[in-house]
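WARN retry 2 of 3 for item q-0093 after timeout on previous attempt; input resubmitted unchanged.
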Amino acid sequence: MPRTPRIKSTLLLSAAAAVCCATVLTGCSDDDTPSSVSSAASQAASAAESLGREAASAASSAFASATAEAGRKLDEIRDGVDVKSDVKLGTPGKDGGRATVEVTATNTADSTKSFAVQVDFTDSGGNRLDAVVVTVSDVAGGADGTATARSNRDLSGEVKAEVARAVRY
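OK item q-0093 returned
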């Protein structure tokens, strides 16, 4: 899976280099008219915007890949019951750079069941950053079981978590 933070850093450094080069080249030219300076700044801004779109696309691609993998895992479960309302999440934290959150599944069935829970990690703006599936195994009938969901890669900034899907089987 791509390491989006490294891609973003590389792209942002490239954009900064483009802006610096445009500034230096403009300063070295014989043509210091406002239009030549404006043109160079416009080209640098255009390059930076393009790199920003590439970074956003890479992040979106990483999330899409994680979501597809999570979906495949949940779709493999036979005779599962949708129980999203029976799953609660704790407050997200960090383990090194990876986001973590405690998952609590309440088994409303009479017999022991297991749960597969897809957790989506988002930033403060609601943009999806990662998706994982965690298993809460062998929860006795009428009891709660817990597990910890951990992001696939390091996530920076404020991270929130939400239950995307939950299946009891």
